[in-house]
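W.,

You were right to be curious about this one. When I first looked at the sequence I had no strong expectations either way, so I just let the prediction run and decided to look at it fresh. Below is the sequence, 499 residues in total, followed by the output.
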Amino acid sequence: MFDWLRMLYGSMSYVVRLGTQVSAPFATTIGILTGDTSSPTLWNFVSSDLYISPHPEDTVMAGTVINHLLHADDGAMWSGPNGIVVHLKEYGDYASRKGFMINVPKTKAMVFGVVPDVLPTLYLQGKPIEWVDEHKYLGATFTSGKGGLFARMYTAKAITARKTANVTLRLQKHFGDLPPAQALTIYKSRVASHLTYAAEIAVDLGTTNLALLEAVEAYFLRRVLHVHDRSRLAILYSETGIIPLRFTRVIRPLRFLRGLLQLPDTRLVTKCLSAYVALWKAGKAGWLSNVVHVLLRISVSPPPDWLESLSSVAGIDDLVARVHAAAEFWVSDQIEGQRLPMLVGRRQRGRGGKMSSRSLAFRSYLLVRVPAHRVALTRLLTGSHTLGVEAVKWLPRPTTFTQGVPRHWRLCRLCGDDVEDELHVLMWCTAPSLVERRTLMMLAVWTLYPALKGRAKTPIEWWHMVMEYDELIPHVAAYVYELLEIVLQEPMYVPSWYQ
């Protein structure tokens, strides 16, 4: 290996190209290659003898002094006000002996805890270090002062995630429709990675910062489904199968902890975990207690003993399963309580033909190839349509009224016989144009699946039954699109006494 490295660096030369012009080859004897596979190993070799002497003000975890970290050439160092001065002097002398060039202007100092009235000037190789209240290390933004250690990281990641989401959504202007299945693949790989960044350590104790990230998630999913900004939040997850962010972000630290439990006790991170366990036993706040606080806030059913569950792989697997169950329950509860009759009680045929009534699943109707048909069906099912039962609620309210139009007054604009809701338009309205298309659609269903005739006892049962068959969904989507086109050609009915 050493012979190979000697040959590589001994015979290596460079050229510079500017446009079509190329310089003569030249050699360099300073530095190492960037980006090749050998560089990290070489850096580990050259810096393996770095040693920062312990100081009484240093952090001690499970009997081990921890006063610095190195991630390749990105380092962090901490101690008390006297200890940090000693460590900086020691590291500066080490770098000088090794011939390292320290970028002091990029080196920053921060205070965590009580900030003194006058900050001392810290020096590294004789150059002063700037004090800041915010700095990014390994992609995570740390903040000293009010608002929490990771407060500004939430804002930064929300901005980055929204920019990425907008770039993805703008693809539709150039390439046309972006099918939900493909859009969700992009979301999981490009957007969600920002929304969950550092969630292993940045536990969501408060909801204010979390709301910044949840707003980006809701924004993206609404655009993917083509539903309006007033659509119910739960439908974004019930239709896509995406686990809500508040649940996803607590699964991350649980899985991180699961990995820690399988590491040897000699690792620094396991010593930190031992310190958190000691804090828990002493009844003091720490990372473990923060995770439990969030689990209780999202209504995860508590185990018999929290510490026992958090101290074993099997216990953590059980907690992750409880988080998934809590997410399913939250979505189901939201749908049942928000007048979404088309979604309550439905089932979906999964792999192998097995029926499932899960509240969190990617719905097969989102695979309908005609975008207009798919969007029409999505909006009808999720209550994001402009039929009277929903649209009348958003009318400007006359000054003489303190409440909106009662539901029983939101009548069908075509027949006026009943409330203009989803089932009425699909199954009951007696307008000749709707009856004609309803007859054609049912004929198509009976032709493809004659055994279904007479199996449903109510209109909603019939609807759920038809939606269980993937072959019928394109016909249903086309039927919904045609019906809504007919209905929306007429002005919406508004009671005269409300105008």
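Here's what jumped out at me. DSSP finds 19 helices and 14 strands in the chain. And, maybe more interesting for your project: The chain has a mean pLDDT of 90.

Coffee later to discuss?

I.
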